[in-house]
Amino acid sequence: MPKLYGLIFTFLALLLYASPAQAGKLLFWRFESANNRLVFNTDSRVQPTAQLIPDPTRVVIDLPGITLGRPTVNQSIGGKVSGIRVAQFDSYTTRLVIQLAPGYTVDPQQVKVRGISPTQWTVDLPTPQFVSQPTNPNQPPPTGSPQSRFPAPRSSQGNNNFQITQNGFFIRTERNGSNGSISPKRSEDGKTIILSLPGAVFPNELNGQTLAVNQYGVGDITFSQASGNPQITLEIAPDSPDWQASYSRLGGLVLFPRGGIRATENLTAPPSTGTPLSTLSPKNSSNSISRFSGATINSLDLVNNSRQLIVQADRPVRARGNWNRLSGTYEIRIENAQLSEGLKGPQLGRSSPIYQLRIRQEQGNIVIIEAKPAVGTRFGQFSQPRSDLLSLEVNSSFGSRNPISSYPGSTYPRTSYPSTPNSGSSSGVAINIPPPANSNSYPTDSYPTNRPPVKGQRLVFIDPGHGGKDPGAIGQGGIQEKDVIFPISQYVAQYLQQQGIQTMMARTGDYFVSLKGRTDMANRAGADLFVSIHANSMGVERPDINGLEVYYFGDRGLADAIHRSILRTVNVGDRRVRKARFYVLRNSRMPSTLVEVGFVTGYDDAAKLTNPTYQRQMAQAIARGIIEYMQQNRL
């Protein structure tokens, strides 16, 4: 079983931890021009988030739970990095911005954010590349820029919205659709791929434009938003692999070839009628591929009656595994490795102990495997029985089992792996930030799961709204309600459990549960309280509407207690306690409430609701309100 690093809170500690006065501070920062490196220290543990934002290009690093304690700081640097800005983004977040000079950009996969310790971090930039003329034609490029000029695409700002990366292409979008609705179709002659993207919105600068790419076997790429049916058309070489797409959590669309960029290394782009976007050649050249001396990951399998996930390589590998609490997945990171073209893996059926399994190739010869347990499953020990073999223990019940330390010598069945490399990843946009290896502030235990309730003990039923095929409300930047409220619900359950209160969740993963199924589950379990957690919507055309709403149907006591608790410690607008005939409130047999933690369509609320620190503070406030109600009513 994984070692538990979570802190055990008393009720008083919960109160103190949620107080804004306990936020950490940014103590020190500097930019080392010679190394293109930003260094910063905080006085408390922090897990930064980072993203690359175009037009103009800048690397943005957010420090959740950290305050600046001073006015905004601007420092001029000069050269390819024009300056650094440090400011208080909101009351919970300090933001550091590395501003590149006009016309320059960096590959986000080459930006390295490393934790020397939980309070000491560095941000290393690759050498910025000059990709377009500055917006101001009278402004010369900074000292040290290349003498050659890459001709601009047909849209003068096209390369601010379209980037060539080491893994494919990144396209900025005004609004994302859902990954499940993306539909690629290849023409009969094999020379064209049309990607239909229902729900997506392109920037005006891209709509109706054709850009000449001439990279990775792709000649032209055309963007169309006509008749509400957004499409991307790729003119490709006849022997090009199929291309696919995935929305990035940071906002935007990633295009990548099936089988990875290696599958395009010997392709020649078809004739292009557009103006060349750039003459940069792929960094993964055939020479670099031929010199690769690391391990190749050949297969993933569930063995020993599905009690063990095995990763097989062709030679010795180095890897580490840890829990990502926010996503509810176990991540295995394999250094100096690449994916086999014929990668094999298990078929995950309805009864599989693994709900979801993803594998992707990241820049720098790193393979990432993400496994999400099914309901009633916990992962145990991660080990390396052999130098070329990795093992993750899979427990289909909560009883302890002896670690499996030997690998069966017999062969095992192999079936086609259901996901291709890079599937679902935000490669080329997301800036990967692993937590410091010596940090105990990033728990490695799994998220709260449902155990059979113990009679005679208090039981609170937590209902994370929506899930699976039902994303709930779609908000600013394409964020989905189900993704916002699930971590909040997990934290509520965790905090209540730390106070000795049993919890049961309507769902413990991203899957659909009907309204009747939710109330039936709570009623059968004999729960003492029912708390449904949602995020609100007023439509993206009303970003000015923000705030908290708490609903009840019968007794409003629980709603009032949670409402008071949230307003005491969370910076959120108040839209009052309201009465409503929601199904889950009318059909639950115990005191119940429905908490709308904010508006995903609201400009202010959306920024907060995607902030992990804010999610924890909201969850703690909800948990405190539940505890206060139980104490007042002697439950």
Overall SS class: alpha+beta
What is the CATH topology assignment of the largest domain? Answer: Aminopeptidase
Radius of gyration: 25 Å
What portion of residues belong to β-strands? 35-45%
Please write the CATH class name of the largest domain: Alpha Beta
Helix content: 10-25%
Strand order of the largest sheet: 29-30-23-22-26-31
Number of helices: 9
Q: Which stretches are low in confidence, meaning pLDDT under 50 for 5 or more residues running?
A: 1-22, 133-158, 274-290, 397-430, 437-447
Instruction: Compute the number of strand runs.
Output: 37
Outline the biggest β-sheet: 6 strands, mixed
Supply the CATH architecture of the largest domain: 3-Layer(aba) Sandwich
**Beginning-to-end CA distance, first to last residue:** 33 Å
The 3D shape can be described as: globular
Please tell me the total number of domains: 4
Mean of residue pLDDT?
Answer: 75
The CATH superfamily of the largest domain turns out to be Zn-dependent exopeptidases
What does this structure look like?
α6 packs across α9. β10 and β11 form a beta hairpin. The strands form 8 sheets. The protein has a 6-stranded mixed sheet, with no helix packed on it. It has a 6-stranded mixed sheet with strand order 33-32-34-37-35-36, with helices on both faces. It folds into 4 domains: 25-130, Immunoglobulin-like (Sandwich); 158-279, Immunoglobulin-like, CATH 2.60.40; 289-416, Immunoglobulin-like (Sandwich), CATH 2.60.40; 459-632, Zn-dependent exopeptidases (Aminopeptidase, 3-Layer(aba) Sandwich), CATH 3.40.630.40. With 635 residues, the protein is α+β, with helices and mostly antiparallel strands. The protein is built from 9 helices and 37 strands. Helix content is 14%, strand content 35%.
